Amino acid sequence: MSICYVANTACVAHEAFDEETVLINLERGTYFSLRQSAPSLWLLIQQPASVEALLLVLARELLELPPDATEMITAMLETLHAEGCVLKFEAVPALSADSTAIARLGGVLTAPIVQSFHDLQELIVIDPVHEVHEFDGWPHRPPPFALS
User: pTM of the full predicted structure?
Assistant: First the structure.
């Protein structure tokens, strides 16, 4: 058993752009800009992963890892956990290499950049449009991630 991290898909939406991924925490109304290696790491934690499992996948797929890779990855995951975008629990990691995530890195792990924005919190939280379901109407939220 290890400390694992997984994206909190029950309340976080994300969209990838050229060099950036934008996350929106619909419960807290905070949005984030992920740059450098952060978008790839975000893709890799769509399934539960420990920092050690992430490092193993990255070491196998990349040319080399910087000496502070553990600290960089841990800092990013802990920042997103504190903001409610990532769940943290004890489990057996179930990580496999996501070719899209690895390709975005371009062979090198750079320092992940997570920039948070709190300026639209009130508008995002009170806007029910993000909760509309095709058949059930709104408000409707998906079930939370099950920790097993």
Answer: 0.77
